[in-house]
Structure formats: C-alpha cells, structure tokens
Amino acid sequence: MSNYLIELAAVHLALTLAYWFLLRKERQYTTMRFYLIGAGVLALIIPLFKLPVLFNSEKSIDVLPAEVASLSAVSIGSTDDASIWSVDLLVYIYFAISLFFLCRFMGNVLALVYVRRK
Fold it and tell me: Given its phi and psi angles, is residue 2 left (phi above 0), alpha (psi -120 to 50 degrees) or beta?
C-alpha cells in the first residue's frame, strides 16, 4: 500500500510540474480542465502497472566455497520492527493530510453553495 502511495505522489509531482511548465499561462480553460482531469486519472492508474525496476534493491548472492556454505547458523535477514512502524506512520500521516484537505475542500464547496443561495 505504501509503495502505491509513493508512486502516486511521484506521478502527481511529475504531472504537476508538466502542468506548471506547459499549461500555466494557457487561456483555453477547456484544455487545462481536460489535462487536470486526465492527470488525476492517470496518476491513480499508472502506479497499478508493473513498471521495470530502475535500481535493483536485492542484494546479490555470491558463490561461497564449500566450507563456508555448510554453515547453517547464518542469518539471512532480520525483520526490523522499526521500519514497519515507520512505514505505517508515513501511511497514517498521508491519510491524515488527505483527510484534512478533503475537509477543507468540502468546506469551500459548502461556502460556495451558501454564497450562491444568498
């Protein structure tokens, strides 16, 4: 889940920078509207595809001599509880910020509805 959120943030950043450099001063609002809607949909869909890995994060396994390879007490990997908590914390912070901006957006929409009725 957190990998999806990281990729989603990266795609949003790239699309926002493209908007900033290419369409910022555009006066055809339909073009900007289609770009922004399409960018939002693309940002949600692109992280779902399996893209090639640019950097190999797995460590290579070297071939060891027979004497060293026969040891059975070698620890392959450890589970680090601190890294699990940090990822969960990042996800909770992301959801809290998203909830804040969603509430702010809904408040602004309600303010517009109030102004229109008045």
Answer: alpha
